[in-house]
Every structure is written in structure tokens, then in C-alpha cells.
Design a protein that fits this description.
- The protein is of the alpha/beta class and about 150 residues long.
- The chain is built from 4 helices and 5 strands, in the order βαβαβαβαβ.
- The chain has a 5-stranded parallel beta sheet.
């Protein structure tokens, strides 16, 4: 049976108590707003307010012009409501200049307002590779940004 079709019958018998808004303001630390560069943030902020969501972290900042436009939209409209993570490209991880190039990319992004680094890697990864060895302590920790590195099969 496919997981999308599976709908087990609950054995829990309680009265419904539907809650649509948090009693206390909260932070959504894992969100993906792929259209952030062009999104009308006022609509999203209205939805956030209806839930009592004080702050949203968008893990899909990417890099380059996409990152720049996302930061511009956030900073011009709701700088106190959104945080943005940069996503670096691990395709060139074996390139000898990979570490240096990405340190500069991350440093510039942090100066522009990025609050963290996010990278999802499909499959097994050797975290002792050149990038991690050369950059983990020297780059991320000195910049005091959040790092989210995770893998999956």
C-alpha cells in the first residue's frame, strides 16, 4: 500500500479541540519559500499573523541573483519577520578552489543579511572532505551563522 493512500483509523477517542492560532508567538525555523524574490510578502505576513507566527526562516535562499532579490524583498518590506539561509552548490566540491570561493560567497551573503547556511545532500557524503576540513571552523563559526547540513538516502 502506498503511504499517500494509507489512512489508519485512530483509536484515540477525545473531543475535537481545533486550535488555529498559537497562544504565544513562535518561530518557524524550517520553511521553503521558493518565490521569495517576487513574492508579495504582505500576504504571507497576514497568514503568519493569523497563526501568531512571529518570524519565519526561509531555508531556500539559494545564491546569486536569486539570493540578492530575496534579501532585497525582505529588507524593503519585512526585515524583522524573515530570516534567509544561503544554499551553496556542492557540485564542484572536488575543485581545489571550492573552499576559498565558497568562503567568500558565504561571507558576502552574511554581510548582506543572510543568517545561515543550508545544504541538503542526497546520498552518503564524506564530511571529512576538503570543504568541511578547510571551512567548518574557519568560516562558519567565526561568522556566527547557523549551519544546517543534512543527508538522506
Amino acid at each position: 500500500m502506498d503511504i499517500e493512500v494509507y489512512e489508519p483509523i485512530s483509536t484515540l477517542k477525545v473531543e475535537k479541540n481545533l486550535i488555529y492560532k498559537s497562544k504565544y508567538p513562535f518561530v518557524d525555523i524550517h520553511n521553503h519559500q521558493f518565490d521569495m524574490p517576487i513574492k508579495d510578502l504582505s500576504k504571507l505576513v497576514n497568514e503568519m499573523d493569523s497563526l501568531n507566527m512571529a518570524y519565519m526562516v526561509n531555508l531556500s535562499g539559494f545564491r546569486g541573483i536569486y539570493l540578492d532579490k530575496s534579501l532585497q524583498n525582505i529588507n524593503e518590506n519585512y526585515p524583522d519577520r524573515f530570516g534567509l539561509f544561503i544554499n551553496i552548490d556542492f557540485e564542484q566540491i572536488d575543485d581545489p578552489d571550492f573552499g576559498t570561493n565558497n568562503q567568500e560567497l558565504i561571507r558576502n551573503a552574511v554581510e548582506d543579511g543572510v543568517i545561515g547556511l543550508n545544504k541538503f545532500i542526497k546520498g552518503l557524503v564524506n564530511f571529512t572532505n576538503t570543504f568541511i576540513k578547510k571551512n567548518w571552523e574557519s568560516s562558519f563559526w567565526k561568522m556566527f551563522i547557523a549551519c544546517l547540513l543534512y543527508t538522506s538516502d
